[in-house]
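Re: that chain you flagged

S.,

Sorry for the slow reply, it's been a week of failed gels. I finally had a moment to sit down with the sequence you sent. For the record, here it is as I used it:
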Amino acid sequence: MTDGLPHCRAAALQDAQVGRRWLIEELWAEQGVGIVGGAPKCCKSWMGLDMVVSVASGTPCLGRYEVSTPGTALCFLAEDDAATVKSRLHSIAASRALDLAPLPIEVITAASLRLDSPRDQQLLDQTVREVSPRLLLLDPFVRIHRIDENDAGQVSGVLAYLRQLQRQHHVAVVVVHHARKNGSVASSGQALRGSGDFHAWVDSALYLRRVRDGLTMSVEHRAAAAPTPIPLRLIAGDTPHLEITDPEQTPDEPAPDHLADNVLAALNHAPTPLSRSALRAALHVRNERLGDTLTNLANSGLISRVGDAWTPVPVPLPQCMPGNGTT
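Prediction finished late last night. Pasting the C-alpha cells below so you have them in one place:
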C-alpha cells in the first residue's frame, strides 16, 4: 500500500465500448460535458430545454434524435424567472402531447449560483448527489461566475470543477455559452466568447447561428463523427418549440436558384416598374435575399432602377446583316 496516485496494469483497464455511447443519439455523448453555443437570440436556451424534456421523457430530441438512457434532468436558468422556465418547459412538453407534471425535471430556484465559489460548488455537488440527474443544464455561463472569461487560468479552474462533477456523479453537463459578436461561423468552437479552453474542454457541442430567418445547428464531438448541420426554426403559437425544417427552402419562398428568374418574370409581366416592397409581396421572399438578387441582376444589366422601383432592361434586337434580303 502506497500513498501515491492510484494505478494499474494497462491490460487491467476497462475495455473501450464498441462504438460511441450516447445520451442523445448523434447530439450528446453519455455523461459528456459540453456547450450549447451561439450569438444572442439564437434559441440556445430553447435547445437546452428541449434536451431537458427529451431526457426526462425519453422522447426524441427535436423530434428526431433518440434518447438512449432517459432519467431525471436538473437545470438552472440564471436569466429567466420561474414562470418563464415553467412556460417554456410546458410548451415543449405539450408539443409532444406530454404532461409536464409527471416528468422528472428538477429546477434549481436559488437566486444565484457561482461556479467559482467554493461554497456554491459544494452546494451544487450536494444537489447533484441528491437528485442523481442524467443531465445537468446550466444557462448561461456568463451569469454563473465572476471570473475573467479571457483568463485561461480562471476559466480552466471552473471547467475542471464541472469535469470533476461529471466524473463523480456520472452526469452529462450542458453549459449554454455565448459566441463573440464577430465570431467566425466557419469555426464555431473557436468563436465562443472568452478563453479557448471552452472549445478544448467539450465532449459534445451544439453551435447555433442565424441563417436569414431560420437557424442552423452545427454539432461537434470529441470522439465521434458529427452529423450534417441541422436546419431549425422556432415554432410560435400556443406551444412554442424548436423543430427541424426542410434544409432546401423555407415555406412560401422560391428556391434560391429560381429567385432571379422569378424577379425577372414579375417585372416583365408588370405594366409599370415594381418597388422592392411590391416584389417582396408578390414573391414571398425575404428582404435580404431579394436585395442581393436585385443587385446581381442590376450588375448584370438585366434590370435598372426607376426612382424607387425596378424595371427590366429591354433586350436589344439583333442587327440585320447585309445581304440577308432586308432593307
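What I noticed first: Residues 45 and 195 are 22 Å apart (CA to CA).

Talk soon,
D.
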